[in-house]
Amino acid sequence: MKDIVFTVKRQRTELIVFGVCLLVSFLMNVYAIVTFNTEWKELYTQLLWVLAIAVFLYAVSVGIRLIYTGVRSVLKSNKK
Amino acid sequence: METTEIGRRDFLKTVGALGSSGLLLTAFPWLQSFAADNQKALKGEKAKLAIIGTGSRGMYHINNLLNTRQADIVALCDIYKPHLDQAAALCPKAKKYSDYREVLASPDVQGIIIACPLHEHAPIAIAGMKAGKHVFSEKSMARTLDQCKEMYDVYKQTGQVLYIGQQRLFDKKYIKALEMVHNGTIGEVVGLRNFWFRNNDWRRPVPEPSLERQINWRLYKEYSGGLMTELATHQLQIGTWALKSIPDYIMGSGDITFWKDGREVYDNVNVIYHYPNGVKMTFESIISNKKYGMDEQILGHKGTLELAKGKYFFEEVKPAPGIQQLINQIEHKVFDQVSFAGPSWVPETASEDNGEFIVDKVKTHDGSNTTGAAGDGSEELVASFCDSVITGKPIPVLVEEAYYSSVLALLGLKAMEERSIIEFPEEYKIPYLNHA
To answer: In angstroms, what separates the C-alpha of B300 from chain A's closest C-alpha?
Structure first.
Protein backbone atom coordinates (compact mmCIF):
# COMPACT_ATOMS: atom_id res chain seq x y z
CA MET A 1 0.00 0.00 0.00
CA LYS A 2 1.31 3.40 -0.93
CA ASP A 3 1.87 6.10 1.77
CA ILE A 4 -0.01 9.34 1.27
CA VAL A 5 2.48 12.19 1.65
CA PHE A 6 1.03 15.43 3.02
CA THR A 7 3.83 17.93 2.47
CA VAL A 8 4.33 21.15 4.41
CA LYS A 9 3.61 23.08 1.22
CA ARG A 10 0.35 21.20 0.76
CA GLN A 11 -0.61 21.84 4.41
CA ARG A 12 0.05 25.54 3.96
CA THR A 13 -2.01 25.60 0.76
CA GLU A 14 -4.94 23.85 2.43
CA LEU A 15 -4.81 26.21 5.39
CA ILE A 16 -4.86 29.20 3.05
CA VAL A 17 -7.80 27.70 1.12
CA PHE A 18 -9.72 27.06 4.34
CA GLY A 19 -8.87 30.59 5.55
CA VAL A 20 -10.30 32.02 2.34
CA CYS A 21 -13.44 29.90 2.79
CA LEU A 22 -13.76 31.18 6.36
CA LEU A 23 -13.37 34.78 5.20
CA VAL A 24 -15.97 34.32 2.45
CA SER A 25 -18.33 32.74 4.95
CA PHE A 26 -17.80 35.59 7.42
CA LEU A 27 -18.45 38.16 4.68
CA MET A 28 -21.64 36.27 3.77
CA ASN A 29 -22.78 36.72 7.37
CA VAL A 30 -22.04 40.47 7.19
CA TYR A 31 -23.94 40.66 3.88
CA ALA A 32 -26.89 38.76 5.39
CA ILE A 33 -27.03 41.02 8.46
CA VAL A 34 -27.10 44.13 6.24
CA THR A 35 -29.53 42.68 3.70
CA PHE A 36 -32.03 41.26 6.19
CA ASN A 37 -31.55 44.08 8.68
CA THR A 38 -30.86 41.78 11.64
CA GLU A 39 -28.74 42.39 14.73
CA TRP A 40 -24.98 42.94 14.55
CA LYS A 41 -24.45 40.60 17.46
CA GLU A 42 -25.05 37.82 14.94
CA LEU A 43 -21.42 38.41 13.95
CA TYR A 44 -20.55 36.26 16.98
CA THR A 45 -23.82 34.49 17.83
CA GLN A 46 -23.92 32.85 14.38
CA LEU A 47 -20.28 31.72 14.32
CA LEU A 48 -21.33 28.08 14.20
CA TRP A 49 -23.21 28.74 10.99
CA VAL A 50 -20.18 30.65 9.63
CA LEU A 51 -17.95 27.68 10.46
CA ALA A 52 -20.40 25.22 8.91
CA ILE A 53 -20.56 27.26 5.69
CA ALA A 54 -16.74 27.54 5.63
CA VAL A 55 -16.45 23.74 5.92
CA PHE A 56 -19.03 23.35 3.15
CA LEU A 57 -17.15 25.78 0.86
CA TYR A 58 -13.86 24.05 1.66
CA ALA A 59 -15.42 20.67 0.81
CA VAL A 60 -16.66 22.11 -2.49
CA SER A 61 -13.17 23.48 -3.24
CA VAL A 62 -11.60 20.09 -2.47
CA GLY A 63 -14.09 18.44 -4.82
CA ILE A 64 -13.38 20.91 -7.63
CA ARG A 65 -9.61 20.55 -7.19
CA LEU A 66 -9.83 16.76 -7.17
CA ILE A 67 -11.83 16.80 -10.40
CA TYR A 68 -9.36 19.28 -11.94
CA THR A 69 -6.36 17.14 -10.92
CA GLY A 70 -8.07 13.97 -12.16
CA VAL A 71 -8.97 15.46 -15.54
CA ARG A 72 -5.46 16.91 -15.93
CA SER A 73 -3.75 13.59 -15.17
CA VAL A 74 -6.03 11.81 -17.65
CA LEU A 75 -5.17 14.39 -20.34
CA LYS A 76 -1.44 14.07 -19.54
CA SER A 77 -1.48 10.26 -19.82
CA ASN A 78 -3.31 10.54 -23.18
CA LYS A 79 -0.56 12.87 -24.55
CA LYS A 80 2.09 10.31 -23.64
CA MET B 1 -47.07 21.62 53.27
CA GLU B 2 -47.07 25.25 52.19
CA THR B 3 -49.81 27.13 53.96
CA THR B 4 -52.00 29.73 52.37
CA GLU B 5 -50.44 32.30 54.68
CA ILE B 6 -47.02 31.94 53.09
CA GLY B 7 -48.54 32.09 49.63
CA ARG B 8 -50.36 35.29 50.50
CA ARG B 9 -47.27 36.99 51.85
CA ASP B 10 -45.62 36.58 48.48
CA PHE B 11 -48.73 37.09 46.40
CA LEU B 12 -48.25 40.74 45.49
CA LYS B 13 -44.52 40.22 45.06
CA THR B 14 -44.93 37.41 42.56
CA VAL B 15 -47.70 39.14 40.67
CA GLY B 16 -46.16 42.60 40.86
CA ALA B 17 -44.59 43.35 37.51
CA LEU B 18 -46.47 46.63 37.30
CA GLY B 19 -43.59 48.44 38.92
CA SER B 20 -44.97 48.76 42.43
CA SER B 21 -47.70 47.23 44.53
CA GLY B 22 -49.42 50.64 44.52
CA LEU B 23 -49.90 50.51 40.77
CA LEU B 24 -50.94 46.87 41.02
CA LEU B 25 -53.64 47.69 43.55
CA THR B 26 -54.89 50.56 41.41
CA ALA B 27 -55.32 48.23 38.45
CA PHE B 28 -56.63 45.30 40.50
CA PRO B 29 -58.24 46.90 43.59
CA TRP B 30 -59.77 43.67 44.88
CA LEU B 31 -56.24 42.52 45.82
CA GLN B 32 -55.94 45.19 48.52
CA SER B 33 -56.28 42.69 51.37
CA PHE B 34 -52.84 41.35 50.39
CA ALA B 35 -51.19 44.73 50.96
CA ALA B 36 -48.61 44.73 53.76
CA ASP B 37 -50.44 47.42 55.80
CA ASN B 38 -53.63 45.43 55.75
CA GLN B 39 -51.85 42.23 56.75
CA LYS B 40 -50.21 44.02 59.70
CA ALA B 41 -53.57 45.35 60.90
CA LEU B 42 -55.14 41.89 60.80
CA LYS B 43 -52.39 40.09 62.66
CA GLY B 44 -53.76 37.61 65.18
CA GLU B 45 -57.44 38.16 64.30
CA LYS B 46 -59.71 35.37 63.11
CA ALA B 47 -62.89 35.36 61.03
CA LYS B 48 -65.62 33.18 62.54
CA LEU B 49 -67.17 31.38 59.62
CA ALA B 50 -70.05 29.05 58.89
CA ILE B 51 -69.99 26.74 55.88
CA ILE B 52 -73.47 26.33 54.40
CA GLY B 53 -73.38 23.41 52.00
CA THR B 54 -70.74 20.80 52.78
CA GLY B 55 -70.73 18.89 49.50
CA SER B 56 -67.69 18.65 47.24
CA ARG B 57 -67.12 22.39 46.78
CA GLY B 58 -67.86 23.08 50.44
CA MET B 59 -65.27 20.48 51.43
CA TYR B 60 -62.79 22.06 49.04
CA HIS B 61 -63.25 25.42 50.82
CA ILE B 62 -63.00 23.76 54.23
CA ASN B 63 -59.65 22.25 53.27
CA ASN B 64 -58.38 25.63 52.09
CA LEU B 65 -59.68 27.37 55.21
CA LEU B 66 -57.99 24.86 57.50
CA ASN B 67 -54.70 26.11 56.02
CA THR B 68 -55.65 29.76 56.44
CA ARG B 69 -54.41 31.20 59.73
CA GLN B 70 -57.11 33.86 60.07
CA ALA B 71 -60.03 31.45 59.47
CA ASP B 72 -62.03 29.83 62.26
CA ILE B 73 -64.80 27.49 61.14
CA VAL B 74 -67.41 27.69 63.92
CA ALA B 75 -70.46 26.22 62.19
CA LEU B 76 -71.38 23.71 59.50
CA CYS B 77 -74.76 23.40 57.82
CA ASP B 78 -76.21 20.91 55.36
CA ILE B 79 -79.55 19.15 54.88
CA TYR B 80 -77.77 16.01 53.67
CA LYS B 81 -76.41 14.26 56.77
CA PRO B 82 -73.59 12.22 55.13
CA HIS B 83 -72.06 15.45 53.82
CA LEU B 84 -72.48 17.18 57.17
CA ASP B 85 -70.80 14.32 59.03
CA GLN B 86 -67.96 14.28 56.54
CA ALA B 87 -67.30 17.98 57.15
CA ALA B 88 -67.69 17.61 60.92
CA ALA B 89 -64.92 15.02 60.91
CA LEU B 90 -62.55 17.75 59.67
CA CYS B 91 -63.93 20.46 61.98
CA PRO B 92 -64.88 18.68 65.23
CA LYS B 93 -65.31 21.93 67.18
CA ALA B 94 -67.79 23.41 64.72
CA LYS B 95 -71.49 23.38 65.60
CA LYS B 96 -73.70 21.36 63.23
CA TYR B 97 -76.90 22.76 61.70
CA SER B 98 -79.46 21.50 59.20
CA ASP B 99 -81.31 24.81 58.78
CA TYR B 100 -79.38 27.83 57.48
CA ARG B 101 -81.75 30.23 59.27
CA GLU B 102 -80.42 28.97 62.60
CA VAL B 103 -76.89 29.69 61.40
CA LEU B 104 -77.88 33.25 60.49
CA ALA B 105 -79.42 33.71 63.95
CA SER B 106 -76.22 32.64 65.68
CA PRO B 107 -74.22 35.55 67.14
CA ASP B 108 -71.04 33.44 66.96
CA VAL B 109 -71.01 33.57 63.17
CA GLN B 110 -69.48 36.60 61.42
CA GLY B 111 -69.39 35.30 57.88
CA ILE B 112 -71.03 32.54 55.86
CA ILE B 113 -69.67 30.59 52.92
CA ILE B 114 -72.44 29.34 50.66
CA ALA B 115 -71.58 26.25 48.62
CA CYS B 116 -75.13 25.00 48.01
CA PRO B 117 -76.89 24.28 44.71
CA LEU B 118 -77.29 27.41 42.59
CA HIS B 119 -80.98 28.09 43.24
CA GLU B 120 -80.23 28.50 46.96
CA HIS B 121 -77.42 31.06 46.57
CA ALA B 122 -79.60 34.16 46.41
CA PRO B 123 -82.13 33.36 49.18
CA ILE B 124 -79.39 32.45 51.66
CA ALA B 125 -77.04 35.28 50.64
CA ILE B 126 -79.79 37.92 50.84
CA ALA B 127 -81.03 36.62 54.19
CA GLY B 128 -77.41 36.50 55.40
CA MET B 129 -76.60 40.08 54.49
CA LYS B 130 -79.89 41.28 55.98
CA ALA B 131 -79.04 39.37 59.18
CA GLY B 132 -75.74 41.28 59.38
CA LYS B 133 -73.50 38.47 58.19
CA HIS B 134 -70.73 38.81 55.64
CA VAL B 135 -71.31 36.51 52.71
CA PHE B 136 -69.21 34.46 50.35
CA SER B 137 -71.33 32.73 47.73
CA GLU B 138 -70.13 30.29 45.15
CA LYS B 139 -70.60 31.25 41.53
CA SER B 140 -72.89 31.75 39.72
CA MET B 141 -74.38 34.50 41.76
CA ALA B 142 -77.98 33.29 41.40
CA ARG B 143 -80.33 31.19 39.31
CA THR B 144 -82.31 34.10 37.81
CA LEU B 145 -81.55 37.59 36.57
CA ASP B 146 -83.90 39.14 39.13
CA GLN B 147 -82.20 37.27 41.96
CA CYS B 148 -78.78 38.52 40.78
CA LYS B 149 -80.04 42.09 40.79
CA GLU B 150 -81.71 41.72 44.17
CA MET B 151 -78.54 40.25 45.63
CA TYR B 152 -76.51 43.16 44.25
CA ASP B 153 -79.01 45.72 45.58
CA VAL B 154 -79.03 44.17 49.06
CA TYR B 155 -75.22 44.17 49.02
CA LYS B 156 -75.21 47.90 48.28
CA GLN B 157 -77.97 48.67 50.82
CA THR B 158 -76.56 46.70 53.74
CA GLY B 159 -72.88 47.49 53.20
CA GLN B 160 -72.00 43.95 54.18
CA VAL B 161 -69.08 42.14 52.60
CA LEU B 162 -70.07 40.02 49.60
CA TYR B 163 -67.74 37.73 47.69
CA ILE B 164 -68.64 35.56 44.72
CA GLY B 165 -66.43 32.59 43.84
CA GLN B 166 -64.79 34.07 40.75
CA GLN B 167 -61.37 32.72 41.59
CA ARG B 168 -59.77 33.79 38.30
CA LEU B 169 -59.63 37.31 39.75
CA PHE B 170 -57.08 35.93 42.25
CA ASP B 171 -55.15 33.68 39.88
CA LYS B 172 -51.66 35.08 39.24
CA LYS B 173 -51.50 34.09 35.61
CA TYR B 174 -54.87 35.72 34.88
CA ILE B 175 -53.86 38.91 36.68
CA LYS B 176 -50.62 39.13 34.72
CA ALA B 177 -52.39 38.30 31.49
CA LEU B 178 -54.99 41.03 31.98
CA GLU B 179 -52.19 43.46 32.76
CA MET B 180 -50.75 42.55 29.34
CA VAL B 181 -54.14 43.25 27.77
CA HIS B 182 -54.52 46.63 29.44
CA ASN B 183 -50.98 47.84 28.75
CA GLY B 184 -51.34 47.03 25.06
CA THR B 185 -48.81 44.20 24.85
CA ILE B 186 -51.10 42.18 22.58
CA GLY B 187 -52.40 45.28 20.79
CA GLU B 188 -56.05 46.02 20.29
CA VAL B 189 -58.35 43.25 21.51
CA VAL B 190 -60.25 41.99 18.48
CA GLY B 191 -61.89 38.84 19.81
CA LEU B 192 -62.38 36.57 22.83
CA ARG B 193 -62.96 32.84 22.62
CA ASN B 194 -64.02 30.70 25.56
CA PHE B 195 -64.57 27.00 25.35
CA TRP B 196 -65.05 24.11 27.74
CA PHE B 197 -65.11 20.60 26.35
CA ARG B 198 -65.57 17.48 28.44
CA ASN B 199 -66.57 13.94 27.81
CA ASN B 200 -68.64 12.90 30.79
CA ASP B 201 -72.32 12.91 31.65
CA TRP B 202 -71.96 15.26 34.65
CA ARG B 203 -73.99 12.84 36.76
CA ARG B 204 -73.20 11.88 40.31
CA PRO B 205 -74.14 8.54 41.84
CA VAL B 206 -77.43 8.63 43.74
CA PRO B 207 -77.90 6.37 46.78
CA GLU B 208 -81.67 6.30 46.32
CA PRO B 209 -83.97 7.64 43.52
CA SER B 210 -85.68 10.18 45.77
CA LEU B 211 -82.36 12.05 46.04
CA GLU B 212 -81.85 12.32 42.26
CA ARG B 213 -82.84 15.98 41.90
CA GLN B 214 -81.12 16.93 45.16
CA ILE B 215 -77.77 15.41 44.17
CA ASN B 216 -77.89 15.91 40.41
CA TRP B 217 -79.34 19.41 40.70
CA ARG B 218 -77.03 20.64 37.91
CA LEU B 219 -79.10 18.69 35.37
CA TYR B 220 -82.46 20.32 36.15
CA LYS B 221 -83.58 23.78 35.07
CA GLU B 222 -85.32 24.50 38.35
CA TYR B 223 -81.98 24.48 40.14
CA SER B 224 -79.36 25.21 37.50
CA GLY B 225 -78.67 26.92 34.21
CA GLY B 226 -76.48 23.98 33.19
CA LEU B 227 -73.28 24.69 31.31
CA MET B 228 -73.93 28.43 31.34
CA THR B 229 -74.16 28.90 35.10
CA GLU B 230 -71.75 26.13 36.07
CA LEU B 231 -68.94 26.68 33.54
CA ALA B 232 -69.51 29.77 31.41
CA THR B 233 -69.70 32.19 34.35
CA HIS B 234 -66.01 31.65 35.06
CA GLN B 235 -65.02 32.40 31.51
CA LEU B 236 -67.46 35.15 30.58
CA GLN B 237 -66.04 37.30 33.33
CA ILE B 238 -62.87 37.58 31.22
CA GLY B 239 -64.80 39.62 28.66
CA THR B 240 -65.84 42.26 31.18
CA TRP B 241 -62.37 42.25 32.70
CA ALA B 242 -60.51 42.55 29.41
CA LEU B 243 -62.79 44.92 27.50
CA LYS B 244 -63.97 46.98 30.50
CA SER B 245 -67.37 46.96 28.89
CA ILE B 246 -70.50 44.84 28.66
CA PRO B 247 -72.06 43.44 25.47
CA ASP B 248 -74.92 45.21 23.76
CA TYR B 249 -76.57 42.08 22.38
CA ILE B 250 -76.35 38.32 22.75
CA MET B 251 -77.32 35.34 20.60
CA GLY B 252 -76.89 31.61 20.91
CA SER B 253 -78.01 28.09 20.34
CA GLY B 254 -78.25 25.18 22.77
CA ASP B 255 -79.42 21.59 22.57
CA ILE B 256 -79.32 18.24 24.24
CA THR B 257 -77.48 16.33 21.54
CA PHE B 258 -75.85 13.37 23.26
CA TRP B 259 -76.75 12.85 26.94
CA LYS B 260 -80.46 12.19 26.41
CA ASP B 261 -80.89 10.73 29.88
CA GLY B 262 -83.76 12.78 31.21
CA ARG B 263 -81.73 15.88 31.94
CA GLU B 264 -83.30 19.26 31.25
CA VAL B 265 -80.20 21.38 30.67
CA TYR B 266 -78.27 21.61 27.39
CA ASP B 267 -75.20 19.48 26.80
CA ASN B 268 -74.13 21.43 23.71
CA VAL B 269 -74.10 25.24 23.66
CA ASN B 270 -72.72 28.01 21.52
CA VAL B 271 -73.21 31.67 22.46
CA ILE B 272 -71.97 34.94 20.95
CA TYR B 273 -71.69 38.17 22.95
CA HIS B 274 -71.46 41.29 20.80
CA TYR B 275 -69.73 44.35 22.29
CA PRO B 276 -70.48 47.94 21.24
CA ASN B 277 -67.08 48.24 19.50
CA GLY B 278 -67.84 45.22 17.30
CA VAL B 279 -65.70 42.75 19.23
CA LYS B 280 -67.33 39.39 19.85
CA MET B 281 -66.84 37.01 22.73
CA THR B 282 -67.87 33.41 22.22
CA PHE B 283 -68.59 30.58 24.61
CA GLU B 284 -68.78 27.02 23.36
CA SER B 285 -69.25 23.90 25.42
CA ILE B 286 -69.83 20.29 24.45
CA ILE B 287 -69.68 17.56 27.07
CA SER B 288 -69.38 14.58 24.76
CA ASN B 289 -65.93 15.34 23.31
CA LYS B 290 -62.91 16.52 25.30
CA LYS B 291 -60.26 16.84 22.58
CA TYR B 292 -59.84 20.63 22.92
CA GLY B 293 -60.32 20.82 26.70
CA MET B 294 -60.97 24.25 28.14
CA ASP B 295 -59.41 27.67 27.75
CA GLU B 296 -60.03 31.35 27.47
CA GLN B 297 -58.31 33.04 24.55
CA ILE B 298 -57.87 36.77 24.11
CA LEU B 299 -57.01 37.73 20.56
CA GLY B 300 -55.17 41.00 19.98
CA HIS B 301 -53.87 42.37 16.70
CA LYS B 302 -50.32 41.93 17.96
CA GLY B 303 -50.67 38.76 20.00
CA THR B 304 -52.79 36.10 21.65
CA LEU B 305 -53.25 35.03 25.26
CA GLU B 306 -54.28 31.53 26.26
CA LEU B 307 -55.20 32.15 29.85
CA ALA B 308 -55.86 28.67 31.23
CA LYS B 309 -52.61 27.43 29.69
CA GLY B 310 -50.90 30.57 31.01
CA LYS B 311 -49.26 31.34 27.67
CA TYR B 312 -48.90 34.20 25.22
CA PHE B 313 -47.99 34.29 21.55
CA PHE B 314 -47.01 37.17 19.31
CA GLU B 315 -48.36 37.52 15.78
CA GLU B 316 -44.96 38.51 14.39
CA VAL B 317 -42.40 35.98 15.49
CA LYS B 318 -38.80 37.18 15.75
CA PRO B 319 -37.12 36.70 12.35
CA ALA B 320 -34.45 34.04 11.96
CA PRO B 321 -30.80 35.24 12.00
CA GLY B 322 -29.69 36.87 8.75
CA ILE B 323 -27.33 34.06 7.76
CA GLN B 324 -30.10 31.48 8.07
CA GLN B 325 -32.41 33.65 5.98
CA LEU B 326 -29.70 33.96 3.35
CA ILE B 327 -29.20 30.18 3.20
CA ASN B 328 -32.96 29.72 3.00
CA GLN B 329 -33.14 32.20 0.13
CA ILE B 330 -30.33 30.48 -1.78
CA GLU B 331 -31.94 27.09 -1.19
CA HIS B 332 -35.27 28.34 -2.56
CA LYS B 333 -33.59 29.88 -5.62
CA VAL B 334 -31.80 26.63 -6.37
CA PHE B 335 -34.54 24.12 -5.66
CA ASP B 336 -37.87 25.93 -6.10
CA GLN B 337 -38.05 25.43 -9.83
CA VAL B 338 -41.77 24.87 -10.24
CA SER B 339 -44.23 27.51 -9.08
CA PHE B 340 -47.83 26.46 -9.22
CA ALA B 341 -49.75 29.00 -7.15
CA GLY B 342 -49.49 32.45 -5.63
CA PRO B 343 -48.85 33.21 -1.96
CA SER B 344 -52.58 33.11 -1.18
CA TRP B 345 -52.44 29.36 -1.58
CA VAL B 346 -50.21 28.98 1.52
CA PRO B 347 -52.11 26.81 4.06
CA GLU B 348 -53.36 28.69 7.13
CA THR B 349 -53.52 25.93 9.73
CA ALA B 350 -52.76 26.96 13.30
CA SER B 351 -49.29 28.22 14.14
CA GLU B 352 -46.95 25.67 15.69
CA ASP B 353 -45.39 28.38 17.87
CA ASN B 354 -45.10 27.12 21.46
CA GLY B 355 -45.39 30.62 22.93
CA GLU B 356 -44.09 31.88 26.26
CA PHE B 357 -45.38 31.44 29.79
CA ILE B 358 -47.15 34.45 31.29
CA VAL B 359 -45.70 33.81 34.77
CA ASP B 360 -42.89 31.59 36.04
CA LYS B 361 -43.85 28.26 37.59
CA VAL B 362 -47.31 28.57 36.06
CA LYS B 363 -49.95 26.33 37.61
CA THR B 364 -52.51 25.12 35.13
CA HIS B 365 -55.36 22.66 35.27
CA ASP B 366 -57.35 21.02 32.52
CA GLY B 367 -60.79 21.93 33.87
CA SER B 368 -61.80 18.30 34.34
CA ASN B 369 -61.85 18.58 38.13
CA THR B 370 -65.33 19.79 39.00
CA THR B 371 -64.45 20.67 42.59
CA GLY B 372 -61.44 22.92 42.21
CA ALA B 373 -57.76 22.84 41.34
CA ALA B 374 -54.58 23.83 43.15
CA GLY B 375 -53.22 27.24 42.24
CA ASP B 376 -56.39 28.48 40.54
CA GLY B 377 -56.84 31.42 42.92
CA SER B 378 -59.42 29.74 45.19
CA GLU B 379 -57.12 29.73 48.24
CA GLU B 380 -56.34 33.44 47.84
CA LEU B 381 -60.03 34.16 47.30
CA VAL B 382 -61.21 32.59 50.58
CA ALA B 383 -58.22 34.04 52.45
CA SER B 384 -59.15 37.49 51.18
CA PHE B 385 -62.74 36.89 52.29
CA CYS B 386 -61.49 36.12 55.81
CA ASP B 387 -59.62 39.43 55.85
CA SER B 388 -62.71 41.30 54.70
CA VAL B 389 -64.85 39.60 57.36
CA ILE B 390 -62.40 40.77 60.02
CA THR B 391 -62.26 44.36 58.72
CA GLY B 392 -65.95 44.41 57.75
CA LYS B 393 -65.10 46.39 54.62
CA PRO B 394 -66.56 45.38 51.25
CA ILE B 395 -63.96 44.87 48.55
CA PRO B 396 -64.17 46.96 45.37
CA VAL B 397 -65.00 45.67 41.89
CA LEU B 398 -65.27 41.96 42.75
CA VAL B 399 -69.05 41.88 43.16
CA GLU B 400 -69.59 43.96 40.05
CA GLU B 401 -67.38 41.64 37.96
CA ALA B 402 -69.16 38.59 39.36
CA TYR B 403 -72.57 40.17 38.83
CA TYR B 404 -71.96 40.78 35.16
CA SER B 405 -70.47 37.33 34.59
CA SER B 406 -73.59 35.74 36.11
CA VAL B 407 -75.91 38.03 34.18
CA LEU B 408 -74.08 37.31 30.92
CA ALA B 409 -74.39 33.58 31.52
CA LEU B 410 -78.12 33.88 32.22
CA LEU B 411 -78.70 36.16 29.21
CA GLY B 412 -76.87 33.63 27.02
CA LEU B 413 -79.16 30.93 28.37
CA LYS B 414 -82.20 33.12 27.72
CA ALA B 415 -81.09 33.75 24.12
CA MET B 416 -80.75 30.01 23.54
CA GLU B 417 -84.08 29.14 25.18
CA GLU B 418 -85.97 31.87 23.31
CA ARG B 419 -84.01 31.39 20.06
CA SER B 420 -83.69 35.13 19.80
CA ILE B 421 -81.14 37.92 19.76
CA ILE B 422 -81.29 39.66 23.14
CA GLU B 423 -80.36 43.28 23.75
CA PHE B 424 -78.70 43.73 27.14
CA PRO B 425 -81.69 44.75 29.31
CA GLU B 426 -81.42 48.23 30.86
CA GLU B 427 -82.91 47.02 34.16
CA TYR B 428 -79.96 44.71 34.74
CA LYS B 429 -77.26 47.34 34.22
CA ILE B 430 -75.43 48.50 37.35
CA PRO B 431 -73.20 51.53 37.95
CA TYR B 432 -69.99 49.95 36.74
CA LEU B 433 -67.77 50.29 33.66
CA ASN B 434 -69.62 51.98 30.81
CA HIS B 435 -72.81 52.62 32.80
CA ALA B 436 -73.32 55.37 35.32
So the answer is: 26
